[in-house]
Amino acid sequence: MRGTETVALKNVSFYYLDESELSDETSADSEVSAGRYESTESCVQDICLNIPAGSCTVLCGRSGSGKSTVLRLIDGLAGTFFPGEKSGVVLVHGTDVFDLSPRNRTKSIGVVTQDPRSQFFMGTVGDEIAFSLENLGTDPSDTIKFVQEAATLSGVSRLLAEKLTELSSGQKQRVALAAAIANRPQILILDEPTSNLDAEGSQSLIKILGELKRNGVALIISEHRLHQFLPVADEFVYLQEGRIAARWDVEKFTSLSEHETAKFGLRHPDMKSDSEIKSYPAKDADGWHMTDVTYLYPSTKRGIKGITAEFPFGSVTVICGENGTGKTTLAKVLVGAAREQRGIVARNGKHLSRKERRLLSYFVMQDVDYQLYAGSVADEVVLGRQVDDALKARAWEALAAFGLTDLADRHPASLSGGQKQRVILATAYCSDAELIVLDEPTSGLDGHGMHEVVHWCRKLASEKKAVVVITHDELLAQLAGDYIVDLSLQKRD
Amino acid sequence: MKAEVESSKNTRWVMRDVLTFVIFNLIIMILITVAKVVEDMLLAPQNTFFVGSWLFPLLATPFYLVMADRIGKRGVLSGSILIFGVLYTFMGGPYCAPVAIVGAVIGELVMWGKDSYHDIKRVIGGYIVYWVTFGFYGIIPYVLFREAYMKQLETYYNAADVTAMIAQYTELPWILLMMALFAAGTIVGGLIGSKFLKKHVRKAKIA
Amino acid sequence: MNDMEETDIKCGLLGLDPRTHLLSFFLVGIVSMLIVNLLETVLLQAFATAYLTANGRTRSATRTCVSFTVICGLSFLPLPGLYGVLFVSMLHMIPPFTTGCAFFSLSPSAIMCALDRWHLPQKFLVGICMIFRFASILPFEMRSILRGIRMRGIFPSLLGIVRHPALAYECFYTPLVMRSLRLSNELAASAELRGIGIGTGRTSVYHVGFTLRDAMCALVVTAAVAGIYALEAVL
């Protein structure tokens, strides 16, 4: 797979004609999210990048800084699929990306996005990996050979006959990678590839990227969890408000202190909580208790077994563990979405039925799009309840507490991911729920975003609610948790 | 690689339009299938006539409005009629194919004109053609297989009884009532859908 | 490549081109509309079952056969109103549906490649591919939406839905529409990058192409359905 071609962006500026295309780029504090965006403003400006073959460039920056736009410029979608005005030139193998035929573009560039659901077209793993090759009209015997190579490199060669819907998120991501590299592109673009992966999954992915880099593939990665890419990265490019504000080689990036990365809004592995994390709350602490609870899914016989845990009011309990250890299953039993097969769930010693748990709890799903229904943020906060003066006052208090007052009239679907999350948290704050579960709240968030999530969790806990955070993000667990329930340890015990 | 900018102003369908078309038509089909199953479980066939005729368009029209508004190009209505016809054809009813073709042609003629798919009233009016075509999928078997079920049911019923049973799907006044119920359901569904379109889709600037 | 070759079972024991399945479906469907007697309908279903089984879909064939038997039995009961008529109509729909299962159980890759050889428009082929894709995503999306509604506690019980049907519909409608619009956007972008718009000449790792087997199969199916129709005329 060796090649000498490069990607070059020469003084590229771009702005979207359609404001709704910016939904992936908006952040909590940007001009865009506040509705003050004017269509003549650029989304990215004066971008100059030169990415040689066999190198790895990591784009970093706060949400809304333009990382996704730069990736879209390289793969040629910005200005075509996403209408907009572009100046400057983007060269791929020395040719303007707009002049590449669809065939050459598919051959040259492989793309892996954050969410595998938005890039799978077929039913089985083998069919999915072969898809691009078949579109290119590749001879079937060559297709079979290339599929096998890509599957072996990505570690999914035993899964070729499996249905995509039955894979774990880590497996899906590896299939997406295999599908992107099957036609041997010289350029591979990855948009937050580790956001849904645990530590082991991320390490596995990075090893594969290292192998691709050795084979001469130019890697361009957009990420928030940056330090794990140190073994493969050659350059870190920091974007701020659509411009390149800083560049670091590996040595310089490694030498950045926690304070310096915080200034940039980036994550740093040494980020610490001010308070000490305890494993177990005091025995007589008020809250919910889970004793020897078992729930195994009938079809797979996987789930949780004999789990005992405490979830005190007024504190944040983190449920962590690798993918597949049962974190979400535990939370589902806790909120009454699943009936425990053994054990009990109690509140201050009194057993809680499933119905009672459902009434007293609130579950914020990882994808909050499934839980937004109203036409405005203000309506969302009081949805389904009898609106009286007391509730109105509480609702405004909730909006103020989560910095949403200016967005009260906005449609929730028009907000950024972080803002949507805050809307749901404000709704939880306003509700009568005393136990609130957040499922992977920092997936795809930068350092600043993660600090915000920690802040909001604390806000909820200050209202004497029991906040439960499910995460495989070790940094979030360190920052947010008063108590830790580590399912990996419980399983080993 | 030619740029496909400002796709909403082109009359040619782009990839996004195709995917939007498929996903929303599938949603409509799933909704109708679920509603039909529930309806069949709760009601006898002669009573489902009175419920399904307005319930199905009531549920489906809000989704159709979003699709029509989002794509906004010729072929949305005819394509929707054809895709449903293809589904019914593969469900075991090859007779649906010619009915779908006729319905698609009439539907697209009804929607002829510039920007018709952004006029909510016209979209709702056009969608009534969709449901009239759907109604005929139900009527045709009673005509086509008449001899077959006459023969089979003659054990228990005489010809006059069978004729009375199927009157709802073969006699003109009943057929007109069915179409009127379809129209009513589509109009009410359209009113609801129009409200949702403005309140959600256009306000959020997703479409 | 053994795993992928094993999935070649999608071509079935007969290893037919997808278009041959389409032809078989239409032939069985046409005759199904023309025959009247129960005996011939049963023979047609038996043939359709054999066809599906020979194409490696034994479980689907068994299921359709069981459905046919149940409905056949029900059609003999003296049920009031339109039931009898309904069941007889369904009896005539099951044989073509059974045959059609042979086509729909194929990989989208094989179907797209076969239809591409008829020079059908690329966007039509993409639509076909997306039907398969969305058909598996949509139930998941709908279940997630229902789960989301439950987990937010908007309707603590089913009675709440009955009391507020408009709100319930809006809670289902809004996220489904938003997710669908977003999904169609994301998948369309991905489709461009995966080369779906390249044009004709796509290939498939599955067998696509007419061989002697297809000719023989077309002959057998035509003879069988014609024979069943003729049997009715004779009897």
TrEMBL record, chain A:
Its main location: membrane. Keywords: ATP-binding, Cell membrane, Membrane, Nucleotide-binding, Repeat, Translocase, Transport. The keyword Cell membrane applies. It is found in: Cell membrane. InterPro entries: AAA+_ATPase, ABC_transporter-like_ATP-bd, ABC_transporter-like_CS, ABC_transpr_CbiO/EcfA_su, ECF_ABC_transporter_ATP-bd, P-loop_NTPase. Residues 7-266, 288-493 form the ABC transporter domain. It is a peripheral membrane protein. GO terms for cellular component: ATP-binding cassette (ABC) transporter complex. It holds the Pfam family ABC_tran. GO terms for molecular function: ATP binding; ATP hydrolysis activity; ATPase-coupled transmembrane transporter activity. Probably part of an ABC transporter complex. Responsible for energy coupling to the transport system. Belongs to the ABC transporter superfamily. PANTHER family: ABC TRANSPORTER ATP-BINDING COMPONENT, HEAVY METAL TRANSPORTER. This is ABC transporter ATP-binding protein.
UniProtKB/TrEMBL annotation, chain B:
The chain crosses the membrane at residues 18-37, 49-68, 125-145, 174-197. It holds the Pfam family Trep_Strep. InterPro entries: CHP02185_IM. Keywords: Membrane, Transmembrane, Transmembrane helix. This is MptD family putative ECF transporter S component. It comes from Lancefieldella rimae.
